[in-house]
Design goal:
Layout: H1 4-17, H2 24-35, E1 39-40, H3 41-49, H4 57-70, E2 74-76, E3 84-86, E4 94-98, E5 104-107, E6 133-136, H5 139-149
The protein binds zinc ion (2 copies).
């Protein structure tokens, strides 16, 4: 296991590699995203405040959008849910979203190379990526429904 200090350095390196200045606030936001993928901006704020109690919501939102623009974070927007952020980027993975509890799981691309879907009519586009959200009912919710039906 990596020590905390090593991890912070690795994160700082990732931030610089994306062309951003590394600050303790940015490192804390990236750490929060790695610990809890698919977090809303507010969840990231709560998590970052455990180490940096004085950070403003504005600062966290600003960092999340800078990360998204720089390709360090990905923004996922499932229907009916606030935008979620994750640090797993560049692999064209997809998501399964539970319509009952909002649980979200990563799905690796079925074929492995982006895009794994071919549009029926690409309208002359050169397709670079495809994003699929599978919505359904997670196993926990399905079990609960089954238990309460008895
Ligand atoms: Zn569920
Ligand atoms: Zn994901």
């Amino acid at each position: 296991m990596r020590k905390a200090a090593d991890t912070a350095q690795t994160l700082a390196g990732d931030i610089r590699a994306a062309g951003l200045k590394s600050t303790s606030q940015r490192v804390a936001v990236l750490a929060a995203l790695q610990q809890a993928p698919h977090s809303s901006a507010d969840a990231v704020l709560v998590s970052v405040r455990s180490t940096l109690p004085n950070i403003s919501a504005q600062a966290v939102y600003g960092i999340l959008s800078a990360f998204t623009e720089a390709g360090l974070a990905r923004r996922v927007e499932p229907a009916g849910s606030p935008a979620l952020y994750e640090a797993r980027v560049g692999d064209n993975h997809h998501h399964l979203v539970c319509i009952r509890c909002g649980a979200i799981k990563d799905v690796d691309c079925v074929i492995g190379q982006a895009p794994c879907l071919t549009p029926d009519d690409d309208s002359g586009f050169t397709v670079l990526a495809a994003e699929v959200t599978f919505s359904g009912i997670c196993s926990t919710c399905a079990q609960q429904a089954e238990t309460s039906a008895r």
